[in-house]
Amino acid sequence: MNLALKTGKKIVPVALVKDYENNVAYLDVGNPIDVRNLDLNIQDYYPGKEESEKYRIKSMSSYVRDHMATAVYHMMERHLVPMKRNEYGDMGHYFVDFYVMDTYRKLNWKHDVFEAEYLTKKTDEEREYEAVSFLIGGSLGTSNELIRRADVKMSFSDMTFPHQLMRVMLLDQIRIICDK
User: Fold this and answer.
1) What is the pLDDT of residue 168?
2) Which of 10, 20, 58, 174 could bridge to 32 as Cys pair (CB 3.0-4.6 Å)?
3) d(C-alpha 58, C-alpha 73), whole Å
4) How far is residue 1 from each of residues 42, 55, 70, 77, measured CA to CA in Å?
5) Burial class (CB in 10 A: 0-12, 13-18, 19+), 35
6) Which of 25-39, 84-98, 126-140 has the lowest mean pLDDT?
7) Predicted local confidence at residue 115, as pLDDT
8) Which of 123, 121, 100, 112 is nearest to 169 (CA)?
9) DSSP secondary structure string, 36-92?
10) Residue 112: its pLDDT value, please?
11) Which of 38, 32, 34, 173 lies closest to 109 in space, CA to CA?
């Protein structure tokens, strides 16, 4: 949102819905949204909050998310068989487990990308006394000072992931290492 405001570029909402049963993906590309010309009432999105830059930007983000969610809803309605809530114990966990693991399986691991084998090559004694801290860099990168201070640098992918997903991926790699 901030980048669109600074550069004047429009945001194009894109939604992708994958039908795993039929191995088909549906893509919806919405009309470009010029966030600088949005006339939004902050109270519609954040009732009781005063007009401020923070809540103006949050309202714009909510507006764009609403458009994307609407597109996804209509695509699912047109193309997919509805899921029945009673067929799943906890639907939220089902989606998190399914999509995180699906994304994880599809990562293209390269030789310069982090491999769990690095940590398993250490002796038991080295592992026992070595303190390990992990730093997950931001979407705009990591400071040169932090990179310089790191003993080991690793990359999971050339793609940028949300922090919550990256934490799950990192924890899964740590779990794999600990299980060996």
Assistant:
1) 83
2) 10
3) 22
4) 16, 12, 19, 28
5) buried
6) 126-140
7) 47
8) 100
9) GG----HHHHSTTPPP-HHHHHHHHHHHHHHHHHHHHHHHHHHHSPPPPGGGSS-HH
10) 42
11) 173
Instruction: Give pLDDT, residue 68.
Output: 80
The crossing angle, in degrees rounded to 10, of helices 163-179 and 91-106 is 80
pLDDT in tens, 130-177: 566 778 887 777 888 888 888 777 777 777 778 778 888 888 877 777
CA distance 114 to 116: 7
Residue 124 burial (CB count, 10 A): 7
Q: Which residues pair with 28 in a beta bridge?
A: 15
Amino acid code (one letter) for 55: Y
